[in-house]
Amino acid sequence: MSHKTKTTISNKTLKFDKVIRFNMKLSILKNKKPSQNFLWLGLIVSALIACSKDKSENECLTCTGEANMPFELCEDGEGNATVNGESTQTDYRVYLANLQKERVVCD
Predict the structure, then answer these.
(1) Mean local confidence (pLDDT), 66-77
(2) Mean pLDDT value of segment 54-63
(3) How far apart are CA 72 and CA 57, in angstroms?
(4) Distance between CA atoms of 79 and 60, rounded to whole angstroms?
(5) pLDDT of 46 strictly over 90
(6) 86 phi, psi to nearest 5 deg
(7) Domain map of the chain by residue range?
(8) The pLDDT value given to residue 65
(9) For residue 88, which of 105, 75, 100, 97 has the smallest C-alpha distance?
(10) Vertex 79, ends 75 and 85: CA angle to 5°?
(11) Residue 61, SS3 per DSSP
(12) From CA 11, how far away is CA 13, in angstroms rounded?
């Protein structure tokens, strides 16, 4: 084998090696893309959850009746009614229904 033949074979081997390395890098990049998509999806979902309304920050109603001063009725994170910030240990819907039976207006 002449020196020129060895060089040609070495060049072909180097080119082949470079092509294989390039293809490996390309396949690694292609494989990273789905995980990057999941990463972005996870970040977006986390941001949406963080920005969503907290269960403990439920809307409150102002209630007034004939015999009492206006008071604030809220539902706590456990589903119980709170009156002016104090827990009643009663289910919010039951408490509100009982107030409405007594003709207390809540809005």
Answers:
(1) 89
(2) 74
(3) 14
(4) 13
(5) no
(6) -105, 130
(7) 1-52, 55-106
(8) 85
(9) 75
(10) 35
(11) strand
(12) 5
